[in-house]
Amino acid sequence: MTIKEMHMVLHRNLGPFGTTAIGLGEMPLTIENNLGHDKGIETIHAALDAGCRHLDTAWAYYCSGGEEQTGEKLIREAMASWNGPKDEVTIATKVGHFRNFTDGRPTWDVDGRPENLIKRGKESALALGVDTIDLLYFHRPDPKVPYNESVEAIKQLVDEGVAQEAGISNASIEQIDIARGILGDKLIAVQNQYSPIYLDTADTLEYTAKVGLNFVCWSPLGGFRKPKDETKFDPFREIAAARGVSYQQVVLAWELAKGDHVFVIPGAHRPETILDSLHAGDLELTPDELVRL
Ligand SMILES: NC(=O)c1ccc[n+]([C@@H]2O[C@H](COP(=O)([O-])OP(=O)(O)OC[C@H]3O[C@@H](n4cnc5c(N)ncnc54)[C@H](OP(=O)(O)O)[C@@H]3O)[C@@H](O)[C@H]2O)c1
Questions:
Q1: Domain boundaries, the chain
Q2: Is the shortest distance between the CB of 223 and ligand 1 below 6 Å?
Q3: CATH 3.10.20.30 applies to domain 13-227+255-276
Q4: Atom of ligand 1 nearest to the CA of 275
């Protein structure tokens, strides 16, 4: 990295962690169609070298039928071989999902039973190579398990020191309130899908601001796994063309402009895309542009 390429990535506080508002979503590096181990390490190192201080992974970021927890193990390896200030990096992981097959196709299944979450949380700490996970999310509600029982298991992991702070993901306002009741101040973040193609969670984005929680947008660029309505990005493309930046930067900047409590974790298969995304924090959209979007 040359001096010219180095820049300050926008910082925000995620609970007690001073970190970057733009994190690296690790999922594409280890689920199906990843570009291999070496490219994964290279991508994480490139993000960290460019100032990214927020990595997002999960127990379940591995290929269906393959070795489990490869995402967490990749992060551990990348951190071990990185020469930068490791203590500045906030690492978040999630438990409650696992990979499966449905009709021969790779799928995502849930197991929110307390005993499973406790076992998986401890395995996550082991795979990450830490005594205490910075931020541990309950990945997704399990319809077979009362929500409070799953969240109680996350609380137990915090009480036992397996995780420092807790988060929930794919949660409704009602579930956010249940989790607040159980976790109190230890609940710092809600990670929900949010992007120009997915605005159904806008109520939770507003609610988290009201109750003092952080909101982390997953698939902030609309994801890479399913075809999407590309026309939704047209207004972002227009502003990007006028500004001379990628439309992805405009999308991320628009999300970050929703409030100081908002974080984005764009995924990347390769260094180029995350390096571009990290510049979104430099892009201040004008009130006029925000109205157009
Ligand atoms: N909590 C949950 O249930 C949940 C669910 C899904 C995802 N997540 C998290 O959210 C993260 C992000 O979601 P995602 O990976 O599904 O989708 P995403 O971030 O919306 O999109 C990733 C795709 O966008 C491309 N991209 C990223 N930055 C770009 C840039 N600046 N210019 C051009 N292309 C760019 C990547 O390209 P390349 O492929 O070319 O690199 C990749 O194909 C995941 O990695 C994971 O950590 C959480």
A1: 13-227+255-276
A2: yes
A3: no
A4: 31
Instruction: Give the dihedral sign, CA 13/6/93/163.
Output: negative
Find residue 72's DSSP bridge partners: none
Whether 110 lines ligand 1, by a CB cut-off of 6 Å, is no
- What residues act catalytically? 61
User: At 181, phi and psi to the nearest 5?
Assistant: -65, -35
C-beta of residue 171 within 8 angstroms of C-beta of residue 141: yes
Q: How many whole angstroms separate alpha carbon 240 and alpha carbon 250?
A: 6
pLDDT in tens, 147-176: 999 999 999 999 999 999 999 999 999 999
Mean pLDDT, rounded, for 94-103: 96
**pLDDT bracket for residue 6 (50, 70, 90):** low
Q: pLDDT tens-digit profile of 120-149?
A: 999 999 999 999 999 999 999 999 999 999
pLDDT confidence of residue 109: 97
Which helix (H) or strand (E) segment holds residue 243: the answer is helix 234-243
Decide: helix, strand or coil at residue 139. Answer: coil
**Residue 147 has which token pair?**
């929500």
- Of 225, 264, 273, 279, the residue with max ligand 1 atoms within 8 A of its CB, to mutate for a pocket test, comes to 273
Q: Identify the pLDDT of residue 173.
A: 98
